[in-house]
Amino acid sequence: SYPSPLNYVHFPKSVCTSPNEVICHGIPDQRVLLDGDIINLDVTLYHGGYHGDLNETYYVGDKALADPDAVRVVETSRECLEKAIELVKPGMLFRDPGNVIEKHAKSRDCSVIKTYCGHGINTLFHAAPNVPHYAKNKAVGAAKPGMCFTIEPMISLGSYKDKTWPDDWTSVTVDGSRTAQFEHTLLVTEDGVEVLTARQSDSPGGPAPMPGENGQHEQNGV
Predict the structure, then answer these.
(1) Beta strand 148-151 with 127-131: parallel, antiparallel or unpaired?
(2) Is 14 helix (H, G, I), strand (E, B) or coil?
(3) Full-prediction pTM beyond 0.70?
(4) Can you give the pLDDT of all 222 residues of the chain as single tens digits?
(5) H-helix or E-strand containing 106?
């Protein structure tokens, strides 16, 4: 396998690492992760002629798991993706997932980043269709069996507006609010969807309860 991001439009690394207020496309550097951080790891591999793309946001240490806002934004993003995947089947309109995602995000007092969207993926890293994550979008087209695309909602505790650093890649919230993202590569089947990048029983991370609820926080940290 080959890391799809490496040298993709001059991206200099093999994986995207996006902590805290970094929405996506963070470039790995020498910053040390601290107890209380949240970090998204976005991994794409080119294998056997095809790309597979997924990402997940992780809690760094017990302090993050004890932070209600950190848990709120991470678990809201996780749930937004899950709810969107439930829609995927032949005939689903590509404008529909955004309605479900934004409704759930707003119910948790979060906002949806509008600049970036899910995308077709196959022998190309990025292809049609576009799958926006916000409500009342104008995406065209409908899902058909055999189509392969990602859904990857980026959820913010504050503003939905973003800005890009001078490196031309790192995208951050304009107000410095924390964000979380989850992504899967999805294959439309004859009667539903197959999650090609589904978690395994031994995958790291996983859902965390809100602080104060019963649960073993320490199992979910990184």
Answers:
(1) unpaired
(2) coil
(3) yes
(4) 999 999 999 999 999 999 999 999 999 999 999 999 999 999 999 999 999 999 999 999 999 999 999 999 999 999 999 999 999 999 999 999 999 999 999 999 999 999 999 999 999 999 999 999 999 999 999 999 999 999 999 999 999 999 999 999 999 999 999 999 999 999 999 999 999 999 999 999 999 999 976 544 444 555
(5) helix 96-107
Question: Hey, what are 151's tokens?
Answer: 């859904």
What is the rounded distance in angstroms from the CA atom of residue 79 to the CA atom of residue 104?
Answer: 8
What gap in Å lies between CA 60 and CA 220, rounded to an integer? 9
Tokens 């505790």 -> residue:
157
Q: Locate 41 and state its tokens.
A: 């790891």
Nearest to 148 by CA among 110, 195, 101: 195
The encoded tokens of residue 140 equal 């065209």
Kindly state the helix (H) or strand (E) to which residue 64 belongs, with its residue range: helix 61-65
Residue with tokens 């926080």: 217
What is the rounded CA–CA span in Å between residue 206 and residue 190?
Answer: 29
Asked if 171 and 23 touch (Cβ cutoff 8 Å), the reply is yes
C-alpha–C-alpha distance, residues 125 and 51, integer Å: 6
Query: What is the Cα–Cα distance from 180 to 92, expressed in whole angstroms?
Result: 25
